[in-house]
Amino acid sequence: MGNRGSIVRLVCGLVCILAPFTAWAAGGQGAGGHASPVILLLLELVVILLAAKLGGDVMVRMRQPEVLGELLIGIVLGNLILLGIPTFSFLRQDEMLAVLSELGVVLLLFEVGLHTTLPDMMKVGVSALLVAILGVIAPFFLGWGVSSFFSPESDRLVHVYLGATLTATSVGITARVLTDLHRLHTSEAKIILGAAVIDDVLGLMVLAAVGGVIAAAEMGTAVNVGAVAGVLGRSLGFLIIVVGVGRLLMPGYFRLMVRLHSQGVLLVSSLVLCFGLAYLAGVVGLAPIVGAFTAGLILEPHHYQDLAAKHQHTSLEELLAPLVTIMVPIFFVTMGARVTLEDFTRVELLGFAASLTIAAIIGKQICGLGVREPGLDRIAVGLGMIPRGEVGLIFASIGASMMLHGKPLIDSATYGAVVIMVVLTTLVTPPLITWRFRKLGATTAHVTDG
Amino acid sequence: MGNRGSIVRLVCGLVCILAPFTAWAAGGQGAGGHASPVILLLLELVVILLAAKLGGDVMVRMRQPEVLGELLIGIVLGNLILLGIPTFSFLRQDEMLAVLSELGVVLLLFEVGLHTTLPDMMKVGVSALLVAILGVIAPFFLGWGVSSFFSPESDRLVHVYLGATLTATSVGITARVLTDLHRLHTSEAKIILGAAVIDDVLGLMVLAAVGGVIAAAEMGTAVNVGAVAGVLGRSLGFLIIVVGVGRLLMPGYFRLMVRLHSQGVLLVSSLVLCFGLAYLAGVVGLAPIVGAFTAGLILEPHHYQDLAAKHQHTSLEELLAPLVTIMVPIFFVTMGARVTLEDFTRVELLGFAASLTIAAIIGKQICGLGVREPGLDRIAVGLGMIPRGEVGLIFASIGASMMLHGKPLIDSATYGAVVIMVVLTTLVTPPLITWRFRKLGATTAHVTDG
Fold this sequence. Notes:
Chain A is mostly helical. The first copy, chain A, is built from 19 helices and two strands. The two termini of chain A are about 20 Å apart.
């Protein structure tokens, strides 16, 4: 089987087959009685699912995690518009797909949380906390330094804000790579996941604090310490209440649910928990995936064993797998498609972007020093913390909308450099983690290779 | 366990708990860095899933199919706005939920199609065809008669159009009830499903023909026979090509898919088929669910046995079940929520609406006479064809947008009566089918009670 040209053949094939159909669907509706927005979405899902499996297939043959293939094929399809082929621009623009993709990553983190127990997590809690704190401090000052070097004329607050955008960790990619590699059970994986959750809280605080300082500077008032403390209080409160109290409520919740005579109650009651906590996390300002992860974390098999026995299910993971299979690739393919390769052609940015990327990577390598347990691999932990993903972009776009002395805090060039940094940190992570965990796997006995 | 008040307690509880949160989410976003449209959707899914399981639970205790509970709780929640509680109006308005619910019914019909084989279907093909044809002719003339009786002053074309709106069959409800009752394998079920597919083709033709006649009358031109023939050609062509040629392509399709090394290929390749044919059905003007059903119909276990063996899956149905569990209730709860109880208070309409409903029910009972096989239950088949669902509403709203002599073809009063007819035919079907199939089940040996 010749696999080298698979991606090329796939892309050409998809374009040739689909271009006329999408044109027909977009223009030719209304002849029948059933025109509806779902019709185009059906086609889009077909494209995404096929593309994801083909991209994943190529990467598996190259002994890389599937998610890298999903990202790369997304980048290819999303950027075909540069060659005058707009067939796949829905991957960037469709609001519906964007929401489905977010549901996908919520399900992914819930599944990852289910594979992790709270006691396991507590065991590495100190390390996770130190990794998270170092992982905020180191990139912050490195980013500040890079910014002052490349634009010494800018206000100091610009450097501070750019430092802040480097602090975020986007755990989706790492979680997926560890899942693809069957390495979720390692202590390194648990430290990464725990640190990423804490990092989201710290990132919120940094954003609130820096934003407060900038707003105060702009308006000439004092910093609103109460507002910053409020953000901290709400997000920490959420985590403490969920992990502390929520866990105690699980047996009662499932005792109520087991009384329901309807079908599929095990899956529904778990997803209600997942979606409910993801929603609450969003309400307090955390990422919904943090809520979904904690939902998985506090949910243990013994909570729902009666429910599973009643409905003759072996495990919740088995019920979730089909949902994850379908929804998660939507997230990674559209994430890839949103990469704008045009940004990489702005030569004047490349030095700045490269330095920012190196600062981002080194900053998270330093955080590996927070690992306290002897024998654990600090490099693996540091690599897992590298991706900035959408969190860095959200920081940057908030910065672009803030004004300082009549100019946007993050100007278009800086924003472009941040985009390049986000793309590079996202793409280097899967091969790096794969390399490092494979190396570890070769020296430890308990790891199974999938 | 006191179950009588469950629905009431549930509704009150949901309102009290959720009202402050939805207000918070709608107004209070933007404090954190993660505001996104997915956050509200998460809450909406929590509400829908909980409501569906609680509604289903009450119905199971009353020995009724769960789907009736989902519809009823949807009606309750959607109409709480009449009591000044707008908390649940998202069930009617959220475009995203509407699309998810359509994906849900697509998955349902795919699953139903998987339970049916093409040879089984062919065995009852003549009956299905006769049932479908009678099921169009009888309601058409009955509807025409009711319309001329209640508004003798209207143009004859109005009567013709109203007759046409009674011809449609919405198979989603019946398919779901038969699934809930574990009766999909009966010959009666197969006749109903086959007739519903043919009915969708006939309904398209009737709509095109009547629409063409009205447009010609309005513009004073001749009827465009070519356009009507085109609708027929495209939709019949789709079915013939899919069932005739598509089936032959299945082994090759799965031979290609089995070469992919990515995970979840069995589920993905089946859903690609389902979504792809649902999309193509939509493009030719048929309902997407007709495409999804035919996808399930042509797909047989021996096509994908190599793929299932490779990935250690026992059956495709098992992989689909979690998706169906989560997605299908969204369809029925939102369908219930879209019922506007205000329409039932327009006393002047009730006589017209009641007559229309009776015509709709009797018309589909007559079609039971098309069943040729001795020993089969004609009443069960006729009952299964009763629901008009969204198809009748689509016909009526197209009529409302057509002008005849400067007035809308379907005026607001007639539209209200059609809405009432659709609601009543939808709600009477689950208990009637349950009653009839239970009665049949008691006299035949091969039926298992779930």
